[in-house]
Amino acid sequence: xxxxxxVGLPGVTLFSIDPAVTDETTGKNLDPTxxxxxxxxxxxxxxxxxxxxxxxxxxxxxAGQG
Length: 66
Known about the structure:
The protein has helices at residues 8-15, 53-65. By secondary structure, it is mainly α. The chain has a domain at 30-66. The longest helix is centred in the C-terminal third of the chain and has 13 residues, at 53-65.
């Protein structure tokens, strides 16, 4: 049974938090400094995308504050 295990609802919820969202009623207003799809933050359609260490730290810190 462990072959198909998952982290459960609390884990999935935590991993689904997008710190760029500033208005949770619509989910459409984003903070551009935390937007993982903003090319200014390192996003590219080429693979693999590389984000700076500063962006990753800022994104992770804000996500943890939920």
